[in-house]
Write a structure and sequence with these properties.
Elements (H helix, E strand, L loop, with lengths): L4 E6 L15 H7 L2 E16 L12 E16 L8 E2 L16 E8 L5 E4 L6 E5 L2 E2 L4 E2 H12 L11
Parallel strand pairs: 4-6
Antiparallel strand pairs: 1-3, 2-3, 2-5, 5-6, 5-7, 7-8, 8-9
Helix pairs in contact: 1-2
Length: 165
């Protein structure tokens, strides 16, 4: 376990991202994540962002309300934490985007946004697993069992050992 580390999570939204996507496996989430953390949301802040008028997005000229969640890290499962603060951005209310609540615990699969020190969840809301009473709600297993499953996907395949007769 790592010492508690404050991670500001602001899940960045790509306005050109598809409205919904198919299911992504645990292996896919794990392999595509630059950083995987288990943490607790300490606080939330909201910010407005204008989509540039010259954007190719259908949303150009619209105002998005982004939520920035500050997450205290309980455990880092994959990847180096780039510092005491990791920035991730979400737009609650938009289809398939994760929602954060103060006090909740989650396991987050994060990917670094190109050219920035910010992160977003892998596969939108699929990259956020809520935890209650030590259980990963969506999976119906304990946090430690789920973290072990993730670690299994991080291990290289063991070499094939020939039978000895």
């Amino acid at each position: 376990m790592y010492p508690a580390l404050i991670v500001a999570a602001m899940v960045t939204v790509c306005a050109d991202a598809p409205a919904s996507m198919g299911p992504v496996s645990l292996s896919g989430l794990t392999n595509n994540a630059d950083l995987i953390i288990y943490g607790r949301v300490d606080s939330l802040a909201t910010e407005e962002r204008l989509i540039a008028a010259d954007s190719s997005s259908e949303m150009r000229g619209r105002v998005l309300h982004e939520t920035h969640a500050t997450v205290a890290t309980i455990e880092v499962v994959k990847g180096p934490v780039p510092g005491p603060v990791v920035v991730v951005t979400t737009v609650p209310g938009m289809e398939d985007h994760p929602v954060f609540r103060t006090g909740e615990q989650s396991i987050l699969f994060l990917v670094r946004n190109e050219g920035a020190e910010t992160f977003s969840t892998v596969a939108l809301s699929q990259g956020k697993f809520d935890v209650a009473d030590g259980q990963v709600i969506r999976e119906g297993v304990s946090v430690q069992e789920f973290l072990n499953r993730i670690r299994d996907h991080l291990r290289p395949n063991p070499p094939e050992i020939p039978d000895v007769h």
